[in-house]
């Protein structure tokens, strides 16, 4: 999420003018939407009477509003529990998630909460650490917890009184590091200060460097004063080649002495990129501006787009005009006319004459995939493919842009590292961008294939259910679900709920499960919905901005079989930071073999008669033991090798054959995905 979309450098000015441009620029972060047509799922597995078609009409449309009593709609997902936050976190935004053992760590603008989800139907609070600083992005590794701090009010001592001085040694903007060896009693061991703070961060575990971890820091705020942190500069590169803009920060954390964590490099991965033109306002936004103008609202032109100036900006301005003429009471028509006449000049003074627009100065988020040596950078107007084999010095391999994208927000690789999905946070996360009239390519996901060092666009995906003007909705954070042989992802859409979709066919992604609630408030746009939703060891966990922690499980359907769900559950993680993407490896189990059989039925890779025979052979082998099991499985593997030669899905038949052969050799059990 972002609260300021800074597309051009802004000159210093009055506090009222700064507030005006920042507030209205937030509204100007515009983009687009799409409903994918989806690929053919194929025939329903034998014995199933369920449909592969989503319910129609879509039950997500028209849900009644409420904070804890909103209407709900679900398809192929089961809600196991909803747990509200502690009182000291109520009313403050719940943010990102990280996982360690049986615990989920939930960030919040007031700190973080650690939940025990051993029983996902009844999560219990282990500890709530009140330590305000937006936006409290969280990551874990071994006994260390990393927490982002970006806002001006965050204090090193975790106090709630804020920081009033413009320059202060009490302020934290960067990364807090906690020792959670005793997870019920986190201990702050150090803080790494950065010039622009940490909006998000990514922990990179380099397989070649077991002594250290690296933290990539993305800061979206203007640089702080050099009087507060030496070396900070908000200037352009021409004015100061060491500017804090146009770079990320890399922190090296020695695991034996994490208190010695420090910035070791500031890679300038944004060089030579031009600004990308935006698509402009959506039809509904234009209609809203026209209606507001007819009502007499104040309208500002920001970068060529008309925006309504919020009342919380207009009112103080009018009050200052009344005070300036030594008046009392409400502003007059003359005061309003004066302000309307002054607005264009105020904005022009703020924006100034900047010359050619520049490209991105920051990334919103970076997802690293150490197993393949790549990272995906979602960086304002561009999506990056980065080489991270030297973790302290990432190198940009490719940069893609799209006029349909307003703000490249996050990235997810498929498990093979052959595809890369980027999300677009059009509107900054705080606006309704899933309305029926919003273009279907705006505020969506863009799916690319990776070929060498280049990215090739394939398609868009957007949660297809139209939402109301009272629901903030746009693509946000999600993760892969370890369904073997497929690219399946669960993703948060704020008050658009959560959507599970299959993008195995990169050109035809298709929704296969969802959960949604009605608006938080039926009378106004109030923040809520899923900030992040991730798969972790058999369950799906969502950080609900206003309501707390949701836990789900997949329900079997013709689109995801019980065998596929069971195979996914066989992959166990010791920990998970979704932006430090792990590579899934599946142990040889009968569920895995049956999952591949189910997929061959969908793809028509083998005849129905042959599939029935394979299923019978697996059942017979599973009931046997010892040499009889090994012999029958080896025989089946050999038959499948022969089947592959005449199959329209030969690759999947060979994968099935390999799995059956591994079962024959006794290579069974759970696989722990770990790096420590």
Key features?
3 domains, alpha+beta, 9 helices, 5-stranded antiparallel β-sheet, 676 residues, disordered N terminus, globular
Report on this structure.
Helix content is 20%, strand content 29%. It is of the alpha+beta class and 676 residues long. The strands form nine sheets. Strands 1-28-27-26-25 form a five-stranded antiparallel beta sheet, with no helix packed on it. It has a five-stranded antiparallel beta sheet with strand order 6-5-4-3-33, with no helix packed on it. It has a four-stranded antiparallel beta sheet with strand order 2-31-30-29, with no helix packed on it. A hairpin with a 2-residue loop joins strand 4 (103-108) and strand 5 (111-116). Helix 3 (311-324) packs across helix 4, helix 6 (590-603) runs antiparallel to helix 7 (608-623) and helix 7 runs antiparallel to helix 8.
Summarize the structure.
This protein is of the alpha+beta class. It is built from nine helices and 34 strands.
How do the helices and strands line up, and which of them pair or pack?
Blueprint: H1 15-27, E1 72-75, E2 77-83, E3 94-100, E4 103-108, E5 111-116, E6 124-130, E7 135-141, E8 144-149, E9 174-179, E10 187-193, E11 200-204, E12 212-218, E13 249-254, E14 262-265, H2 283-295, E15 299-302, E16 305-308, H3 311-324, H4 333-351, E17 365-369, E18 374-379, E19 382-387, E20 395-400, E21 408-413, E22 419-424, E23 445-451, E24 454-461, E25 478-481, E26 488-492, E27 498-502, E28 510-517, E29 530-536, E30 539-544, E31 548-554, H5 562-569, E32 571-573, E33 575-576, H6 590-603, H7 608-623, H8 626-645, H9 650-664, E34 671-673
Parallel strand pairs: 32-34
Antiparallel strand pairs: 1-28, 2-31, 3-4, 3-33, 4-5, 5-6, 7-8, 8-9, 9-10, 11-12, 12-13, 13-14, 15-16, 17-18, 18-19, 19-20, 21-22, 22-23, 23-24, 25-26, 26-27, 27-28, 29-30, 30-31
């Amino acid at each position: 999420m972002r609260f300021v979309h800074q597309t051009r450098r802004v000159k210093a000015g009055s506090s009222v003018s700064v507030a005006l441009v920042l507030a209205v620029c937030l509204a100007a972060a515009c983009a687009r939407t799409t409903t994918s047509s989806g690929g053919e799922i194929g025939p329903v597995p034998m014995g199933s009477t369920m449909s592969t078609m989503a319910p129609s009409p879509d039950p997500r449309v028209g849900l009644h509003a409420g904070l804890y009593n909103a209407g709900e709609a679900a398809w192929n997902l089961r809600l196991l529990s909803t747990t509200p936050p502690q009182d000291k976190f109520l009313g403050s935004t719940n943010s990102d998630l990280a996982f360690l053992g049986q615990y989920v760590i939930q960030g919040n603008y007031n700190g973080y909460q650690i939940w025990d989800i051993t029983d996902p139907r009844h999560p219990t609070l282990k500890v709530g650490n009140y330590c305000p600083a937006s936006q409290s992005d969280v990551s874990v590794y071994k006994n260390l917890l990393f927490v982002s701090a970006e806002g001006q009010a965050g204090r090193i001592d975790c106090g709630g009184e804020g920081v009033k001085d413009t320059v202060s040694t009490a302020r934290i903007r960067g990364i807090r590091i906690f020792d959670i060896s005793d997870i019920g009693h986190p201990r702050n061991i150090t803080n790494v200060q950065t010039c622009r703070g940490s909006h998000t961060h990514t922990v990179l575990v380099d397989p070649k460097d077991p002594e250290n971890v690296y933290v990539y820091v993305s800061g979206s705020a203007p640089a702080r004063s050099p009087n507060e942190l030496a070396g900070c500069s908000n200037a352009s590169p021409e004015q100061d080649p060491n500017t804090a803009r146009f770079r990320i920060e890399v922190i090296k954390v020695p695991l034996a002495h994490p208190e010695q964590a420090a910035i070791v490099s500031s890679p300038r991965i944004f060089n030579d990129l031009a600004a990308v033109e935006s698509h402009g306002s959506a039809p509904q936004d234009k209609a809203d501006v026209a209606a507001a103008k007819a009502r007499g609202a104040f309208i500002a032109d920001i970068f060529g787009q008309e925006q309504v100036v919020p009342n919380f900006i207009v009112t103080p301005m009018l009050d200052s005009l009344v005070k300036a003429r030594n008046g009392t009471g409400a502003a007059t028509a003359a005061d309003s006319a004066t302000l309307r006449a002054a607005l264009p000049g105020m904005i022009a003074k703020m924006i100034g004459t900047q010359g050619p627009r520049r490209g991105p100065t920051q990334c919103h988020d970076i997802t690293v995939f150490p197993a393949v040596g790549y990272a995906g950078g979602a960086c304002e107007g561009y999506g990056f493919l980065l080489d991270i084999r030297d973790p302290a010095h990432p190198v940009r391999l490719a940069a893609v842009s799209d006029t349909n994208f307003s703000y490249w927000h996050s990235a997810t690789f498929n498990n093979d590292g052959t595809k890369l999905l980027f999300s677009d946070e059009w509107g900054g996360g705080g606006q309704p961008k899933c309305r029926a009239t919003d273009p279907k390519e705006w505020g969506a996901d863009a799916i690319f294939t990776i070929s060498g060092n280049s990215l090739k666009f394939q398609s868009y995906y957007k949660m297809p259910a139209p939402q109301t003007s009272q629901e903030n909705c746009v693509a946000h954070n999600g993760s892969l679900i370890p369904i073997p042989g497929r690219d399946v992802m669960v993703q948060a859409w704020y008050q658009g709920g959560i959507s599970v979709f299959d993008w195995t066919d990169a050109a035809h992604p298709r929704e296969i499960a969802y959960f949604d609630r009605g608006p938080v408030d039926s009378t106004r746009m109030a923040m809520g919905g899923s900030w992040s939703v991730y798969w972790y060891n058999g369950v799906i966990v969502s950080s609900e901005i206003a309501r707390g922690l949701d836990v789900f499980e997949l329900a079997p359907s013709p689109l995801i079989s019980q065998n596929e769900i069971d195979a996914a559950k066989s992959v166990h993680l010791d920990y998970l930071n979704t932006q430090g993407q792990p590579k899934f490896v599946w142990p040889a189990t009968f569920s895995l073999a049956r999952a591949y059989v189910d997929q061959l039925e969908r793809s028509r890779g083998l005849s129905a008669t042959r599939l029935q025979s394979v299923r019978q052979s697996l059942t017979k082998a599973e009931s046997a033991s010892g040499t009889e099991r090994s012999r029958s499985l080896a025989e089946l593997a050999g038959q499948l090798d022969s089947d592959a030669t005449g199959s329209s899905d030969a690759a999947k038949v060979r994968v099935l054959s390999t799995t059956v052969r591994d079962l024959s050799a006794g290579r069974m059990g759970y696989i722990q995905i770990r790096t420590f």
